[in-house]
Amino acid sequence: MRLQDKVIIVTGGASGIGALYCKGLVEEGARVLIADVNMEQGQSLADSLNEGATTPRALAVRVDVTSEADTLAMAQAAIETFERIDVLINNAGIYPHTDFVDITYDHWRKVMSINLDGAFLCTKAVLPQMKKQNGGKIVNVATDLVWVGLASMVHYIASKAGIVGFTRSLAREIGVHNITVNALAPGPVIPPGPLNAHSAERVASIIGQQAIKRPQRASDLVGAMIFLCTADADFISGQVLNVDGGLTNH
């Protein structure tokens, strides 16, 4: 219960890795606001997290992270329901694969708008409350690909490199308010289930380059994310924590 009664906003929290973050945080005693464009999945997750609880542990709010109005409403909902905001996890994002010559400007802007502008808008929305509390934590989701690059993902990796710069610079600026800013950089998460021959070959190649010789699963990220949200990380700021089995060294 390292996060007892801490209020944590998770963008893109309705499904996938975001949902695993929400579940892990609630298990540690946190109260979570699930911010997602998919309200049906968000509400379903909130209902499951609240089952058997005497007080609400989760609240689902429809949020488009590219909308300033939505992000401001998100922060207000957290304050009205839980009375504070302790942590913001900027997890919402898209992960496209497109050859550079086929990336249109509209597609480029969509990736930047969700992955980078969304983190900016959500952070702007929660910052006044964190300053008022004289404390808080912001955790941005980057990727270990910013250290190595990868073909057909220029727009995605550029947006996540922006997240790294955003993290480092913002940490310098708002540390005076006792607010930490860090980033979690996942490696390639391998989905469970059978793989086709091409995918299996690619996964085997990745594992061969890792220090830990097994596939990375989504659950491998949860403990690191929880750590960055706890008091154990109070004196860590402006850092990028790689979680990729030693695939990259940074």
Features:
250 residues; alpha/beta; 7-stranded parallel sheet; 7 helices; 7 strands
Description:
With 250 residues, the chain is of the alpha/beta class. It has a single domain, classed as 3-Layer(aba) Sandwich (Rossmann fold). It is 44% helix and 15% strand. It has 7 helices and 7 strands. The chain has a 7-stranded parallel beta sheet with strand order 3-2-1-4-5-6-7, sandwiched between helices. Helix 5 links the parallel strand 5 and strand 6. Helix 4 runs parallel beside helix 5.
Short description:
This protein is an alpha/beta fold and 250 residues long. 44% of the residues lie in helices and 15% in strands.
Name of the CATH homologous superfamily:
NAD(P)-binding Rossmann-like Domain
| Biggest sheet strand line-up | 3-2-1-4-5-6-7
* Portion of residues within helices: 40-55%
- Structurally, the number of domains stands at 1
Poorly predicted regions: none
Mean pLDDT: 96
Outline the secondary-structure elements.
Layout: E1 7-11, H1 16-27, E2 31-36, H2 39-50, E3 58-62, H3 68-82, E4 87-90, H4 105-133, E5 136-141, H5 154-174, E6 179-186, H6 197-209, H7 222-229, E7 240-243
Parallel strand pairs: 1-2, 1-4, 2-3, 4-5, 5-6, 6-7
Helix pairs in contact: 1-7, 3-4, 4-5
